[in-house]
Amino acid sequence: MDGNILLWIQDHFRWEGMNWFWKGITSLGNGGWFWIVLCILMVVLAKISGEKCSIKNENCFRAVIGRAGWYGLLSMGAGALITNVCLKNLVARPRPYEVVEGLVPLIGKPTDYSFPSGHTCASFACALVLYRILPKKYGVPAVILASLIAFSRLYVGVHYPTDVLGGMFVGIFSSCLVLWIGKKRTKK
Fold first, then answer.
1. Where does the chain cross the membrane (predicted)?
2. Which end of the chain has fewer surrounding CB within 10 Å, N or C?
3. Is the separation of the CB atoms in 70 and 43 below 8 Å?
4. How wide is the angle at C-alpha 162 spanned by C-alphas 99 and 100, nearest 5°?
5. Which pLDDT score is estimated for 186?
6. CATH number belonging to domain 72-187
7. What whole-number distance in Å separates Cα of residue 104 and Cα of residue 100?
């Protein structure tokens, strides 16, 4: 069924005029670079901000932006360990273009295993942290971008739908874990 969904996307949803867009969206998730740069910029912005306040202060821009950046990085790190070190090697699922006859990937063929999607994991791990910590006017676009990156992995033909769902669940778990640990630490 996973393969049939990908073939349906390829046959009914792919459009030559939009391929550049989806290739660009999927590249934002390569190695989590977009999210990593965003989080580092947030940490740097918090560091250079002249505002003096405690990291525990929920109303302080410096504390909120710094915490979001650090937690985003930690969440992506936890997700990467679970996804790339453990699950991909444990499940060892071949990429769909290696198995599904007629499926043509739109980007270079990744050489690692398929399940779960690392792009999706990193995107949701970071976006959900940002959604929970930052004002919604910043958090909602982050979740929308994570969703676009997740769908792009199907569009370009390098992941099964269940790979993307698996990556999303690992990202959700990683963000919840980091937020929970962070909440415990700030109560001390």
1. 32-49, 70-91, 113-131, 138-158, 164-182
2. C
3. yes
4. 15
5. 73
6. 1.20.144.10
7. 9
Domain ranges of the chain: 72-187
Cα separation, 53 vs 61, in Å, equals: 9
At 88 the three-state DSSP class reads helix
C-alpha–C-alpha distance, residues 132 and 128, integer Å: 6
Q: How far apart, in whole angstroms, are the C-alpha atoms of residue 36 and residue 72? A: 8
Single-letter code of the amino acid located at 117: S
d(CA 124, CA 147): 8
CA–CA gap between residue 155 and residue 182 (Å, rounded): 36
175/120 Cα distance (integer angstroms): 13
Residue 128: predicted pLDDT: 98
> Which residue is listed with tokens 């003096």?
52
pLDDT digits (tens, 9 = 90+) for 14-60: 998 999 999 999 999 999 999 999 999 999 988 887 666 665 666 67
Query: Which tokens sit at 10?
Result: 């390829």
Q: Which residues are part of the catalytic machinery? A: 119, 159
CA 85 to chain centre: 16
Predicted confidence at residue 56, as pLDDT, reads: 60
Residue with tokens 């990291």, as numbered in its chain: 55
Q: Tokens 């739109």 correspond to what residue? A: 106
